[in-house]
Amino acid sequence: MASRILGMGDILTFVEKAQDQVDEKQAKELERKLRKNEFTLEDFRDQLLRLKKMGSMEEILGMIPASAGR
Questions:
Q1: Given this model, what pLDDT does residue 68 score?
Q2: How far apart, in whole angstroms, are the C-alpha atoms of residue 37 and residue 43?
Q3: Nearest to 54, CA basis, from 9, 8, 19
């Protein structure tokens, strides 16, 4: 709680939410696509859907240091 007040965010919760949404196999495939310039609009959509499942943008930004409380 004190770290949130000091503007440090809640990185642990952010990481836990991200881990819940990411499959290691899918992450490696996505990395391969990015490196080979094969990232598609459908891949982007899938990433946005995963982000949406993590919560509202306000909640997500509140977990990131330096943006907490803004």
A1: 47
A2: 12
A3: 19
